[in-house]
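Loading example: each entry is read as two labelled lines plus one structure line.
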Amino acid sequence: MITMKIIKLLISLSITVLLIWALDKSWVVGGSRIPPLGKFLDPFHGFWQNIESKNHKLPEKLEIPGLKEPVTIVFDSIMIPHVFAQHDEDLYLAQGYVTALHRLWQMEFQTHAAAGRISELIGAGKDDAVLNYDRGQRRLGMVFAAENAFKRMEGDPLANRVANRYADGINAYIQSLSYKDLPLEYKLMDYAPEEWTPLKSALLLRSMAQTLNMGDKDMQMTNALALFGKEMVDLLYPDLEPMGDPIVDRTDRWDFEPVKTEDTPPALPAELIAISGLTTPDPTIGSNNWAVSGSKTKTGSPILCNDPHLNITLPSIWYGIQLQSPTVNVMGVSLPGAPGVIIGFNDSIAWGVTNAQRDLVDWYKIKFENDRKEKYELDGSWKESRKVVEKFSVRDQVTRYDTVIYTHWGPVPYDENYRADNNRKHYAFRWIAHDESEELLTFYKLNRAKNHNDYMKALDHYSSPAQNFVFASVTGDIAMRIQGKFPVRRKGEGKFVLDGSKSSSGPQAYIPFDQNVMDKNPERGFVSSANQYPADATYPYYVNAVSYEAYRNRRINNILRESNSVTVTDMMNLQNDNYSIKAEEVLPFLLDRLDVTGFNDVEKYSYETLKAWDYVYHADSESASYFEAWWTNLFPLIWDEMRNDEVSLSYPTAWNTINLMKTKPDLEFYDIKETPEKETLTNLIRASFSKGIAEIEQWKKEKGVTEKVNWADFKDTYIEHLTRTEALGFHVQHGGHANAVNAASRKHGPSWRMVVSVEKDGPKAFATYPGGQSGNPGSLYYSSMLDHWSNGKYFNLIFLQKAEDAGNKANFTTTLKPK
Amino acid sequence: MFFPWWSVAPAAALVGFLYKSKANFLAGFIAIALLWLIMALVIDMNAAVPLAEKIAKILLVNSKVLLLLITATLGGLVGGFGALTGSLLRGK
């Protein structure tokens, strides 16, 4: 009997322990990881704890190690923290703390992605897809770039202090967390946060640079040169498209002596290149900014506007914040992971950024001595290369290693071990962001700038990613400066790959910062930029980019030129403007050339609808959907030659395509290579029209749409969670188009919309973004601004002089006290 | 104080030991299942956003009710076996 008892006991005990063990572990089932169900579903510790109540508030007092004095944080109705500190050191610590409080998971995930460490979190992925992504990041030199930026940061006492205090704040938050306090994604993916370091802030900034400035088509252009010849390349891919409205219009008024370099043309490799560049920039990534002088505004004060266009994801890319200490009082948006305010305003000035289109990537053909790749040819002798062994601590696997060869130009991403398909040639990758830089100082100084002079001095610290900085001050100045570290290029240089065996192939000099394109208080009464070309051909330096914007810039300038007595509401309307100059310029031509014989009923209907279109991408426009389906079928039909499996090539720009359709009706490219017949442009126009209409009918059937095909439904703007988890994202009804000022496409668009009237009695600022301050999907504030954004509405930004001024605008206040 | 999620097991074991009955497993199961269910319901009732529904979708059970039932069941199982083990430690 006793033995039976013991057996029963042992069985029961074993089951209990086994059950707990099984429910404490995350299991991988069919390729997906299930969170540890016991931990995850326990209402006292698991995801239930991430569900916030409607009146969720932080404690009134929090003890934070590392603070010198108490810091007051006032949270407003959209959960923007207004941080009041008595020292800069406390200020940045508090910024780190509160940003981590709302966005810790995002900061860490984004920097892991930049550093090629995602396989550490989620494993190697199907067919090693995730591991290969990570390898690509390391081979592009992302960590290399961050380390160089970090070295510079460490060397500057101010930047070093700021970055370290910010890190201290984040770590203070991390250390306060037990499992139940972890952000939801950690619980879902079953891992815990690691310590934050200033190197990660450098990684975060490089990650932004990768999104904005790593685009290139040098290999594609080299292939085009070999396949089509120089004349055709100049026709298809002109350096400068003559549609007008450059960022700065200063024809022949460049009053400086440009740096000259020798006129030796760079040597080009002869072979075609099978593999494409690692990144093709998304043409929908861009931004708008402009500033209107008081001479054109109703109040007489300048108005500054900025809407950066990025991949719209959740948690939101930007984090709103106000920072005040005895040296600064600034408000705007920050990037979780880096200290300071990146776009915003203070008592005296406002500023914003758009991406400066410039080719800042070069590929250098490397000739190695032998298969060991320890030496490569340079100027007639052999130079030693450097081998870096990258380590990948892949989850649930043994550690993997990848050896990357570095030349003095940069890393060699492709070789027989990585994306070796058809490619035996080695090219070194040089990216401007591999160099040291001082962005932190730029934003530190911009945050404290009081006038144009301060703005100029702040930008002198800025080298990458190159941006068009717009500026307005309370004294009435407006300005634009295209700021970055730009190599002095000989004509055509940088457009193709370069010969890495000659040091003369490298940049001989950089454009002195005071010779970058810039403008101040122009006669026309406004400055603006929308990723268009920086200046006309009289600018004494050769400028080249993957592509330039051709439409948003002209629309913005057309409106601003005609406007007088401008109000902030006018500016909000302009940011939400859905008019497309591209549609205006191409649709009449297409309708005119369209062969209207043999239309079916649907084609007849859409033809009439298109004829009546006002070129505005309203949310409920049907014509917009038909036009979009037509154009997206026409464009690849024309350029079928560019979709080549053997050799990578680029599409020409939309603007140039339309230009060629009108001026070169007999271009050989209209013929579709695969078909035996010789097609003409007219054939393509009709074929793509029918295809597009059919596509929409198919779409309607699949979605069960029986009425009109609304543009907002067809476009389907989708705010996606960083992990691509469908349940944590949102589909929104919103108009706009990549070519319209309101550049909202499916997954890209205005990630922040800001309008600031820079007035003497205090800035009046209005803003919104598609998401919310909290990164917690269980919080009201995860998406509390989304509706406003979708409806083109703005929140009043509350800019406080003292914490006490908040009054009833304060949601609640928390004081951080020294521990 | 650090109480991991599975501390309901030793707690139930203690109770099972002290209050041994004819239905130890069932008592432990019901006690913890109810505890977890009620706590989850209270949280969900005050929720600012329907996160439970989203988690249900992510875990492929697609219904919040099912998620609540699974929550309760898992807690109940751990509590039940804990109580049973505790009761078996006792003599008679």
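Chain A has a mean pLDDT of 93.
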